[in-house]
Design the sequence.
């Protein structure tokens, strides 16, 4: 009898649930609750979400397959391949997951009559493979690619569900929400880009052993802070400006939420970053950033509630 627990651990099931939650949060808290025209029915939307999950799960597997030695140094307790799951079976599962994602992507692209979009899962799968085998060893480019792919499930809601519903009759209604979804995708990208560099700072020991040339390895756990401070300043300039606009528009509910759930935690991240000296200091910082991302995405509910209360 096949035990499911090692497989669930391998594909990072909590992360997959988060991806599913975010996509359905956009679907129901923004699109359906506000009555925004959309193209996919419930079953078709589920297939789109499933495509994202299959790609993400395949990405985790190929990453683990290429990280067996470094994980043995950085996170030996996380290793599943070679113990509960054979290398051959992991490769087989990786192939089937990618195939499933490509087939679903092809079906949806033909359904919405944007035929070239079938290439999205193909390109995403290829980038995840390149990241695992090579790009993650390089400064910045690997962090950029994986952050882009992390934001992709948010962006795909706009591409597959909202964009095909756009017409001359509903442009003023649909287009602003396409921008909103893309804005959330940009937030997820930038915050995850910061977190990926933080994770590299946490994993310096194993990365050095494998001769990786990540930015954290090149600069060290002390000086990498200055790069992170710069990235934080850019993010705060946008979230702070957005917070100010909400205050100016007297959207008190949304502005207070963004202040308490996003901007103040980001400042707390800056304080913890200032005190970081060794690679072991970056583990809690990574968890903090993950929490901020969740709180940021949950602001969709607050914004939608605020719009409902204002009668829009």
Sequence:
């Amino acid at each position: 009898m096949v035990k499911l627990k090692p497989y669930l651990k391998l594909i990072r099931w909590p992360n997959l649930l988060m991806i599913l939650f975010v996509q359905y949060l956009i679907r129901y808290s923004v699109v359906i609750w506000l009555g925004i025209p959309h193209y996919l029915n419930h079953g078709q939307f589920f297939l789109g979400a499933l495509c994202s999950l299959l790609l993400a799960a395949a990405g985790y597997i190929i990453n683990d397959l290429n990280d067996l030695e470094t994980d043995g140094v950085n996170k030996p307790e996380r290793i599943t391949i070679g113990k509960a799951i054979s290398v051959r079976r992991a490769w087989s599962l990786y192939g089937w997951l990618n195939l499933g994602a490509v087939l679903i992507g092809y079906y949806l692209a033909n359904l919405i009559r944007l035929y070239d979009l079938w290439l999205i899962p193909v390109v995403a799968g290829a980038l995840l493979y390149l990241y695992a085998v090579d790009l993650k060893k390089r400064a910045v480019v690997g962090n950029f690619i994986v952050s882009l792919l992390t934001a992709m499930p948010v962006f795909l809601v706009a591409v597959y569900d909202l964009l095909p519903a756009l017409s001359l009759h509903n442009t003023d209604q649909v287009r602003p929400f396409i921008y909103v979804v893309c804005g959330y995708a940009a937030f997820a990208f930038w915050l995850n880009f910061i977190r990926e560099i933080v994770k590299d700072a946490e994993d310096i020991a194993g990365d050095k052993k494998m001769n990786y040339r990540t930015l954290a390895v090149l600069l060290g756990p002390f000086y990498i802070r200055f790069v992170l401070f710069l990235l934080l300043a850019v993010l705060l300039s946008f979230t702070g400006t957005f917070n100010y606009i909400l205050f100016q528009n007297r959207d008190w509910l949304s502005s207070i939420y963004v202040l308490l759930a996003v901007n103040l935690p980001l400042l707390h991240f800056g304080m913890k970053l200032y005190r970081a000296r060794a690679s072991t200091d970056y583990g809690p910082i990574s968890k903090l950033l993950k929490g901020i991302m969740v709180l940021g995405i949950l602001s969709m509910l607050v914004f939608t509630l605020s719009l409902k209360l204002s009668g829009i």
Q: What stands out?
A: Residues 11-309 form one domain.
